[in-house]
Design brief:
This protein is an alpha/beta fold. Strands 1-3-2-4-5 form a 5-stranded parallel beta sheet, with helices on both faces.
Length: about 260
Amino acid sequence: MAFTRFIDLTAPAAERLREDTVAVLPIGAIEQHGPHLPVATDYYIAEAIAEGAARAAGETCDITLLPGLAYAKSDEHAWSGGTLWLGARTLLAVLDDIGRSLAAGPVRRLAFLNAHGGNSALLGVALRELRTRHGLRTFLLHASLPADQGGTSPASELGLGVHGGLNETAAMRHLHPELVDMAQARRSVPEHLTAYEYIGFGKPVSFGWTSDDFGTGNGVIGDPTPATPELGRKLVEAAIANNAAALRECARFLPYRPTG
């Protein structure tokens, strides 16, 4: 059982990876995160959690960590400087090419570890495309599941903390404190959305949105002000542990009942 970084392997070593090796692809984003966080916030979080989880899972199964994908589907932030994004068709094509390339070797399991909510729906489509086109067993893991996709956000954010809020800010204060400017952090929770019974994050009716729709004025949707490095450490360590456990299942998962 082993953990490897794919980019550090020689070609013969890559060819000796196993069918049940799980290739882990961190996927983040380069996009505005308000005035207090760097545009690479999602990428930094994806990389840190993917590597931590891959190393931990590699103690009991074979894991290879692929180079992370920084540019992804961030058009909901295209209104703001600092956002570099790929269109849906482009990102699907990139993921298909990566999967096709991987399938040319022995590896048959590919797990995306995603840290940007705007990628999630498209990554769900990519799972099946890669399964049907290239025979890969595919999985989608999350650094944390966003509130608008069934996850939770702290009570102080009223279930509306989806971007640049408490958890992301805390994680970055732990991982890269030198890149966080808490003097610029402001509470920017769109509290008026609580008046809608059916439409909203985590409610029965979802809606299309861009991050300048909510009237916050700074691109943040949440409350970063209580974020601490200690909270960030706890969040990151929990995410690493949960995703390591998930990767161990990815290494042995079969949708059918084994025979014999």
